[in-house]
User: What shape does this take?
Amino acid sequence: MTATGDDATEEPGSGAADPASAQEVDAAGDDLVVLRFDAEQPLVPIRRARRVTVIGAGAIPPWLRPARCAPLSELLRPGGIPALLHERPRRALVCTLRGVTVRGVLAARRHGVEWFHLMDSSSSQFVCNARGALVIAAKREAQRALGRAPLLARGLERCFGFRINPRFPSLAATAEVARAALELGRRQGPPPPHPPGPLRIVHCIGALGPGGAERQLTYLATAARAAGHDVSVLLTYSSEGDDGHYAPTLARAGVPVHTLEALARWRPTPALRDLAGRPLAPALLEPLEEHEAYSIVVPLIEALVRLRPHVVHCWLDEPNVLGGLAALLVGVPRIVVSTRNVNPTNFPRFHKIWYEGGYRALADCERVAFVANSAAGARDYARWLGLPVERFTVIHNGLPPVGPALDPAARARRRAAAGLGEGDLLVAAVFRLAREKRPEDLVRAVAAARATAPGIRVWHVGVGPGEASFRAAIRAAGLEHAFVLHGRCEDPWALVDLADVTVLCSAQEGCPNVSLESQARGIPVVLTDAGGSAETVVEGETGFVVPVGAPTALAACLVELARDPARARAMGEAGRRFVAERFSIEGMVAASLAAYSAGSARG
Assistant: This one.
């Protein structure tokens, strides 16, 4: 059985559960029954459902109406549900695992349910068949029974060294931790003066994959280390394979990278203290054990106490919320959270419903600085959180000098060796293969443009979960001969230097590095008006900006550049000057270091 998603398939008979690829329920055209055991939990988006029936308590969101509703007791009453469910539903959404019961799963199975979407308090889900759902429901009931016998549970924990009845994630507890961190942050007041000498700076991010935020972190950490500061990086997720793309660069710069080991919920919570050595309050520890990201927050707290930073700089939404809260709880003097795009509700696959509460708690604390890499991104986050846009400092991405342009003769030889003709227009596409990057729009644009300019070729650099569908779109358009997919490259710009134009088709962007790097190399760009993308180009002078989801407009720009190579070269030279003036790495580093000290006078 494979988890839900656009390319999902299911193999009946397995009792295992696999993680879902997105925080939404794909009913695949079937009837869906929602077993709502947890009324406090908002429902996740439901798509491709023929008919939805909600059984249980809680308000029904407007986008789900008109859904048929019934009390949860109806599920267990003989003859109650068949009258409500005119068709036998193949799927059930269990909301949430916290309250699931064996009787409820059995009753749903009797009424025809074959596949169970089991949801936890983060709104993430996994899918299993009835056997798997029954096993999980039985385990939850056993845990709840032990919870009613705390002396027995504690005795077993002392004997066996692990928690027999681990706390289950709760939205209420997750919100309580944010409130506790907010109160603590308010009591702490403004950031105190930094001590004289170098700063201890800890960057917190999920992984070090080949993305824009990871690249800016690497530039900044390397520069701060060269300036004499004590810099380290904490990863909350992984440093393996593609997730460790920038780890060797940081290692060469002398910046240590630490990957946190997640704490299993069945392990007893260790003794937690703040930077002053004071134990964290028991009133905080209890909700912390039910925090949705307990397994990450606790190791974060321990790591920050061990590293004792003056500054914690967090990157991207989940590390922002978790790293920021952990830093507040232990008393880090200065916390910087970097929003690198538009707000997370634009990315349903990654968004978790407790992010907003965490961000709001951080926004109310004087020790926390908010940084965005585009004015558009700052405005979007401010609207989402109900904050004044002045709460955000805009620090555009920075680039190091890229060196002189490739020698024209050497460039011509390398292009010829790659099979490119003199009249060919080589399009570089450097982006992650994910839904928000809209890679299929590039295929449509190239198909339309080649009808007029058949010499258009594309080299793509990048990896991601959408690779299979991207390749399928290329095959369906009959463009296998026009596209080359290079995957992940250690030096993508050795390829891009041979290109005539770079393209981005994204639906959302912050301050796209690929736009800056292309122009810095004398390569014009064509990109969509997504987020802060338009802030990285001078329209008509260094590149073109087209609407999101308009491959025809994108194709027209490619045709124009293919017909007028001299204009393409002139736009590239203008872009080189524009980026050098507006997006230097020195400016980005100086502005970031200023954010570290803002509100605190250096001693």
About this structure: The chain has three domains: 18-145, 171-188+196-394, 408-583.
